[in-house]
Design goal:
heterodimer, A: alpha+beta, Phosphorylase Kinase, domain 1, Aminoglycoside 3'-phosphotransferase, Chain: A, domain 2, 2 domains, 12 helices, 9 strands, globular, B: 7 helices, about 0% strand
Chain lengths: ~325, ~180
Amino acid sequence: MSELDVEALTEHLRQRLPERPALQVSELWRSPGGMSRQTWFADVVWDGADGPGAQRLTIRIDHENGSVVPTPLWWEYRVMKSLYGSNVPVAETLWYEEDLRWFGREFYVRDCVLGDASPKPLFAPGGEERRAKVGRRLAELLAEIHLFDWEKGGLPEFMAVPREPRDAALLELANYRRHWAANAPEPMPVLAELYAWLERNAPTHVPRVSLVWGDVGVGNFIYRGDEIVALTDWEQSHLGDPMKDLAAALWRGIESIISKEDLYSIYEARSGIEICEESIEYYHVFIDAQYATMSGSVLRGFAQEQAPDITFARLGLGIPYRCLDLGLRGVSP
Amino acid sequence: MRPYPDDLLRSMRESLTTVIIPNLADDWARYVAKAMEKIVLHLELRWQHELEFLAADSADINQLLKELQSALGAQAFSARSELAEPMAAIAAQLERAGDLLPAPDAGAINAENETYRAALVEIIDGLERAADDLVLREQLEPLRERIRTYLRRGLDRDISLAEPTNMLFGAPSPQTAQEGRA
């Protein structure tokens, strides 16, 4: 059972936030879904000098079996810290905790941006106008991510910088191949074929090296009304080809809130980066391979004769088939 | 296809025991969930042992029938017409049964299949490296295509197993949006 303990969390927060007397965690709950990591929310209250204080915090922590993605937990923490205050809206990260005594693994705490991440309200009947506005804003924010000054933001301190155009894809591909080699639950010839094709066909033209969000889609941003107030899920971020994010957006069904044509035109107008459809097609296959790879680490616990939560089986079995099927159609129509 | 069925059943039982049952407030729902917990364990054990037990049982009965046939065919019973029916049943079954089927070894079948797939992964990687030479690449392409045809056939074969758990990543319909996505 991978529950966070309220008492341990309360004690931890009291140590971290001594300026908040009589701090209590009034509620602690886990966000349902999510594959890469666990997300928890904690409502905290305390006795302030001017009356009672309250804040909602978000806690991110790896699954008990470790990271499903090839990046460590601190990776997304550092990316969000770098982005905070820029034109890319993210939650404020508060601290990173390396001490394992609290929950047996590292975690970090950030301010909780209030709003919805679930598609449910967005797709409620009559929400067409709201969806369209959110879709347009997401296209603009993709442009803002890709214009972000990553050198000034300190990202090369921990992210590999592509020096040649092909490296924009190949550096990240190598990460996933290593991750697969370390976590593969069984041999997968289709994935080997996809990797071979991806290596051979990496784009030779990259419009600019950008910060790539990685996992673009409904569910990975927080919106309030028709405004996007924070982008989340930065665990797949890296420096590379901005077309990968366009591919990710389409791959995850962004056309349910904005047409491909509008996405492209708003993005190009805002970023000045020209869309390259051929690269986007390439990155569709890349993302298929990427998700099939990650599903291998989701299933890692089963190979170790443990009994992971059944939701791991749902994710680990539910994702790879479709990815391998689509990927193979991409390389061998 | 990993995880194997007993892995999945063990995981289902774990989730029932540690997540679902402790959080069910309704007495009847808890009663039903506890029944499910027992049945899941039963299924796990059936997956592990049922075929082996069935094969052992058939062998056991086969041996028993042979002993009965021999005993009932002895002098003392040979004139008793009341025994004609059971004797006929024994003879019919022994004739029908032929050689006993061994219990299929799911673990060995999976292990064998994994060795084949691992070999194919090595072959794909090797052919890809060899294709750095453009002449060789052209010569090898028909073989690569042959491999891709096999890969497609394998995926098409597995779809019936994969379909129930397939996850949605495309544009949500109003219904799936209400249910939530990955």
